[in-house]
Specification:
The complex is a heterodimer of chains A (212) and B (227). By secondary structure, chain A is of the alpha+beta class. Chain A contains 10 helices and 4 strands. In chain A, helix 4 runs antiparallel to helix 5, helix 4 crosses helix 7 and helix 5 crosses helix 9. Chain B contains 11 helices and 4 strands; from the N terminus they run αβαβαββαααααααα. In chain B, strands 2-1-3-4 form a 4-stranded mixed beta sheet, covered by helices on one side. Classes of the chains: A alpha+beta (212), B alpha+beta (227).
């Protein structure tokens, strides 16, 4: 049985996982979930993912894992010896600590605002909920302020956890791309951040992950 | 004892946490330090004079926040990253709070739990805390509609927690980890303002009450907890 990802080709979180699988050169099968028929809320799915979300990893030996960032960490660790290096050596306590600092920055200082922009401009309208312009502006303003912090960091080092690429840099891509579309000025006004982001966007793994 | 401690501080052999005793994120670090039996000192930040926005602070914490760990010259921020570092550095003392790094599956399940806490729990309890505590503190009135929305989403997410905690003792498996402890600071505020959501999820509530009663958390709250 080949490694399976239950997800959707265009889903942001599925593409986060696809990017890492491609960086590591790991073969996988994408099993597309049937949103239209509410498969994500079925008992069968809830037993694998109790929050009714995708993606879910089912490894070759049946090990089941959810949360895209956890899945990417698992793949990067399991396949540490092939493809792009995406995690520090686990015995290097300081390098691991700086990875965890970067991981927490992405989840607390970037994702809520970048994904918030995506929700107001794309996901809510798709569900018939109109854009809340005030909330959209709050997300843009907060993201802009947070990128000041990113600019300081990326003026001193190449990537968010240090001078080497890690999974954490790649996690930013799906919502960075969506927020860039609706608030390009936020990115352009932070030159070091913008350069870091543009380099990530050009990685073949991201381009391939977006091929659908 | 005081003279020895002074010497240890001077020679930077005691961990320093730049933070505030009552702050939620500082207490998220304190609870781990107490579980591991690690000595530390809190270096307060002067909010009133905007010290958190000073160049000196921003060069340690570029987002102008607390807490920040200073360990013999090594600087680390983000309360969850600090907790993980302490749990790993002091793996051989106090309560076991992380799986063996070579156990890929156990590590993966810890990371799954860590993601659940940061994306399914924190935004909702953080939102409740913002509407009922932090905004009023800043003179901003509670937005009751937003508060209600946070409570509603929180209830839905706790359905997921209930499923998990019906099958295992803690969020990452049958052993306590740092991730369980992370829920405490904002969870406590959410419990004050939306107790019915906790009560409606019995397995979750039992897990929650046992965490709250840990002596490390009681100690972390000794200097105040914003409730």
């Amino acid at each position: 049985m080949v490694l399976t990802i239950i997800g959707h080709p265009i889903s942001t979180c599925t593409r986060r996982v696809k990017t890492v699988l491609i960086e590591k050169g790991v073969d996988y099968k994408l099993q597309t979930i049937d949103w239209a028929n509410g498969e994500h809320k079925s008992e069968a799915h809830l037993q694998k993912q109790p929050f009714g979300q995708v993606p879910v990893l089912i490894d070759e030996d049946g090990f089941t894992l959810f949360e895209s960032r956890a899945i990417t960490r698992y793949i990067a660790a399991k396949y540490a010896n092939q493809g792009t290096k995406l995690l520090p050596d686990p015995s290097d306590l300081k390098a691991v600590a700086l990875l965890e600092q970067a991981a927490s920055i992405e989840q607390a200082d970037f994702d809520p605002y970048a994904s918030g922009i995506a929700y107001e401009k794309v996901f809510y309208p798709r569900r018939g909920i109109p854009t809340d312009e005030k909330r959209l502006q709050q997300h843009i303003d907060t993201l802009n302020a947070k990128l000041d912090g990113y600019e300081r960091i990326l003026s001193k080092q190449k990537y968010l956890a240090g001078d080497e690429l890690t999974v954490v840099d790649l996690w930013h891509l799906p919502y960075a791309e969506m927020s860039e579309k609706f608030a390009p000025q936020v990115w352009e006004s932070h030159p070091k951040v913008n350069a870091w982001y543009k380099a990530l966007k050009e990685r073949p793994s991201w381009i391939k992950a977006n091929e659908g | 004892m005081i003279r020895i401690r002074w010497v240890l501080e001077l020679t930077r052999l005691i961990l320093e946490i730049i933070g505030a005793d009552m702050s939620t994120c500082t207490r998220r670090v304190k609870v781990v330090l107490y579980e591991k039996g690690v000595d530390f000192v809190i270096k307060p930040i002067d909010w009133a004079t905007g010290e958190h926005k000073s160049e000196a602070h921003l060069s340690k914490q570029p987002f102008g926040q607390i807490p920040v760990l200073e360990d013999d010259g090594f600087i680390l921020f983000e309360s969850r990253a600090i907790g993980r570092y302490i749990a790993a550095k002091y793996a051989d003392q106090g309560t076991k709070l992380l799986p063996n790094p070579e156990d890929l599956r156990a590590v993966a399940l810890l990371e799954q739990a860590a993601c659940i806490e940061q994306s399914d729990f924190e935004p909702n309890v953080g939102g409740i805390a913002m509407e009922k505590v932090f905004n009023p503190f800043k003179g901003i009135a509670t937005d009751e509609a937003r508060f209600k929305k946070h409570v509603e989403t929180f209830g839905t997410k706790l359905d997921g927690y209930e499923r998990i905690l019906s099958k295992q003792k803690y969020l990452a498996g049958d052993e306590l980890t740092v991730v369980d402890l992370w829920h405490l600071p904002h969870g406590e505020i959410a419990e004050k303002y939306a107790p019915e959501v906790f009560e409606a999820h019995p397995k979750f509530n039992a897990w929650w009450q046992s965490l709250k009663n840990r002596s490390s958390w009681i100690k972390a709250n000794e200097k105040g907890n914003l409730l």
